[in-house]
Design goal:
Layout (H helix, E strand, L loop, with lengths): L5 E7 L8 E8 L2 E8 L7 H13 L14 H22 L7 E7 L2 E7 L3 E6 L2 E4 L25 E6 L5 E5 L1 H4 L4 H9 L4 H14 L6 E7 L13
Antiparallel strand pairs: 1-10, 2-3, 3-4, 4-5, 5-8, 6-7, 6-9, 9-10
Helix pairs in contact: 1-2
Amino acid sequence: MSRAYDVGASSEMGRRDYQQDAVGHTQGPAGLIAAVADGLGSYEGSDKAAQAAVRSVLGHAYMDPAGGGGSLKPGMESAVAHAHRDVRHEQHVGQHAGLTTLALLVVAGGRAAVAHVGDSRVYRLRAGKLEQLTEDHRDSRHVLTRCLGSLRSDCTPDVLETDARPGDVWLLSTDGVHESLTPEQLASVLADGADAQVAAQALVESALAAGSRDNCTALVVRVPGDTSETVRGAA
């Protein structure tokens, strides 16, 4: 029997003149797919690039044909490679040079996998402890070293496979949120027990109130069940 995940997403333009973030999620018998993307602000068409990336990964087949027990990593790597090609196609069709980051989460039963390119992040709150599962692709000058859509920059994702337990709370965010709030503030919102949509909206509102000057996007996933056990479309 498939789980019904509680999922909520919020995305606000903030103080920017336009929205370059994209967010989406889908779930079914095979599991949950969730993604956020942040178009690079200095490139025309980056809003379209972010939308193309999220659309692409939500439509990808992640599960192994044998039905279940295999690694999710090949599917994650394939999904990001397809997203890169779809962003390049969008550039050609739209006659622009838009680039984007991407953070991706797949949860299938007791398994989970995370992939990212750029500085959009994935966190997991488990038993009250917040863990950042991605490491920003930035150099010593804080310049992005990986993104989708570039022919000069690396688009290879980092992929992490892990478990998913009842009571886990996952957060996918763009830098407008996580660079404006401390880990303690993120954990406090995620731990208060509110449903995922309320939590996502609270994180975005808190980031804007803290002075974020960027687009702000948060996607929250709650795995059903109690934390004492051992073992929720594109917008």
